[in-house]
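Run Succinate-acetate transporter protein through structure prediction, thanks.
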Amino acid sequence: MTSSPTLRGYPFQPADPGLIGLLGFVIATLTAQLAHLGLQDENPVFWIGAAFGGVVQVTAGMLSYFIGDDFHFIVYNAFGWYWIVVPGFLLGEELGFFEVTAQARGLFSLIFAVLALLFAVPGALHNRVLPMTLICVAGGLGLQSAGAFADAPMLGSVGSVLLLAASALALYMLVEKFLWRTMHRHLLPLGRPWLRGEPASES
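Sure, done. The structure for Succinate-acetate transporter protein is below.
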């Protein structure tokens, strides 16, 4: 029988990287979509997107690597690096160098819309809320991509609403995860998984 790992004589359990991963996603997505809808200016998006969306999510992804969680390793890293690139688009537009066209930004969003849809499939092994979140991300980015290609701002606005819904669902998962990790009680139902199988780790 193997003993539990200890740190200075006390039982050691690593923290769940998903706590900061979800936090970064919620804050960055909420900030960006409020700006997209014209409810605030874009200046905060650069710093908040780079810090919370980028650095925090990449950190969560790399910490997931060390606990053997392949799913969250790739998801948080993918969207973390997405949020490191997006502020670069804003900076180039503001300073007038390495500017990216609306169509190129639309293609970039489309790539991550497809990725989010693919991630939703293994996400359906965890619970019901996780794949719903990823589907909202896919739909939101897909509509924003279509809006960029068609020069149709209304499509982008509808996409922002879907991304705000994704942010709300991610916040719901964050609260449930935090309560479970700190109080050891499941107080918010996440729903039964859509697919049968065993996920790599608790979601």
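The first strand starts at residue 6 and ends at 7.
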